[in-house]
Amino acid sequence: MTSLFRYTEPLPPKAATGRVAEVYEQISRDFGIAEPPTFVVLSSAPELLTATWALMRESLIAGPGGRTGKEIAAFGVSKANECPFCVSAHTVLLHATGDHALAERLARGERPENEEHARVLEWGRRTRIPSPQSKPFPFPAEHAPGYLGTALAFHFINRIVSALLTEKLMPGNVQRFRCVRSLAGRTLSRTVRRPARPGEALPLLESTDPGEAPAWAGDSAVGPAYAALLKAATAGAALLDAEDQDLVRATMWEWDGRHPGLGLEGVPDRRERPGARLALLAALAPYRITDEDVAAWRRPEHTDHCLLHLVAYGAFTAVDRIESALSRSIARA
Questions:
Q1: How far is Cα 108 from Cα 11, in angstroms, rounded to an integer?
Q2: What is the pTM (predicted TM-score) of this model?
Q3: C-alpha to C-alpha distance for 171 and 331, rounded to whole angstroms
Q4: Mean pLDDT of all residues in the chain?
């Protein structure tokens, strides 16, 4: 598994103790994969691991709304963020729901035949653009915590994955074969189709007071999970000086959802402001982070824990911008 990680060396899950071990146990039970690299990569920062898992579990797995619809939304988010690892993962998970034809249509880049599914896919894609959406959400209002939580969780996870993992979901990229995707999905089908009780990830959170939950989450478990991730991820701002923090905030305030061009306009030079560059790349184009970018910032005192927090801070600045736009959409409805 170590070849999957680009810049960190997480402890093997079998060596985990305490709360991290409890998270792995719950992931294995409720997600169906014992050691998913998406979460293993965060294990050097337990507060990020627990909050990321909590938001994904309480929205995608246990939150309101059908699993197929939320997987389609997550697929759309991952396509918009150009995260092939996560696109492949959600294709496999759609196979696990039993929607094999739908999974393969999406894998081929085709529009779902079901109009409701097509609207959810397009909604997921459009969430990358941080502006209030004029069209109504393509799901019932009571399912908003599940769908919005799922979309925001994967806007964060996509960025972590693109920054810190390789693109190989499976050895040799064998997930590109339909039979492999289908078989992998079938091995997860029992777990994916089993109902999960909401709220069971919340006792794992590092903080007993994660902060104020967003209004769109209502009284669901998605709210405190989102607040916990916000708190854990934004703590990484302390790794930057005040000028770099101001630059990151100003750049993200102006961001219109587009991927940066080849010249990475608006992203500072690594020789001058390496920390701000890493944070902004994590937000805007994490797949453009290079060995040189990491080396320019990293000092002997910068542990894996530090790197995770800096990348998470950058990633969450994009999530926060998107969440603000989605909240405005709800207020206007």
A1: 36
A2: 0.95
A3: 45
A4: 93
